[in-house]
Amino acid sequence: MIPEAASHVASGKVREIYAFDDGSIALVASDRISTFDVVLPTPIPDKGRVLTGLSAFWFARTRDVVPNHLLGLGDDGRTMVCRRLAMLPVECVVRGYLAGSGWKDYSETGAVCGHVLPSGLEESSRLPAPIFTPATKAGTGHDANIDERQAAALCGEERYRIAREVSLALYRFASEHAEARGIVLADTKFELGVAPDGAVVLGDEALTPDSSRFWPASEYEPGRPQASFDKQFVRDWCERSGWDKEPPGPELPDDVVAGTRARYVEAFERLTEISFEAYLANPEVVL
User: Fold this and answer.
1) Centroid of chain to Cα 228
2) pTM of the model
């Protein structure tokens, strides 16, 4: 849906962004999917609705942890009307388990973003405590892990401290919620910004299969990669395809598209305890 009385101002990897005269914006989530920072040519049906619905679900339940930008939902299930923020120049990543680039860094150095970890950890091991591992936002190419000193220099000490604290608190809240519903939240990425009054505010999306690793708890076993409800299913296919991870990305086969959609919808339903059909009929059911 293109919001009425709004002008298109930007396109992201997944979202189209529109601006209203009152200073608010609309984020419309498409069905595009990106892996290794490249948007693939094959969409995943209903993916944008899952991202919007799950984000709104979490925004409605974490306001006591940190304010967020959500003002309202569109009836298409894809659109969030939001406050405009000045976004911090880092991605706020929290890891509770050793996977992805964190596992790669640990394997090479014994540390992740400056956090020296115990020796002998395996792939997918649960960490002694969640760690905050910021990353740069790459306009082109790949995001890069940085240490906390570098992140504080980019954000300013006080805003960085707040971003770190609320990101860890959000992860603790969401991981407990997910664990009670049979899902392991291995890691996640938050985007935080600054409102006109100077408050640090949660923006973009939150705790979705695009920004998080969700694993079925019943199948969790350290020492190997995990089955997942997120886009790791697509990443794994891309790794096997022989693609060099540079644009253009490969077309996805039908079984990967169907399998990815099923995983996104299952994550939505298990985490929200709301049927996806009920959300499509009335998006505000997640609020």
Assistant:
1) 14
2) 0.93
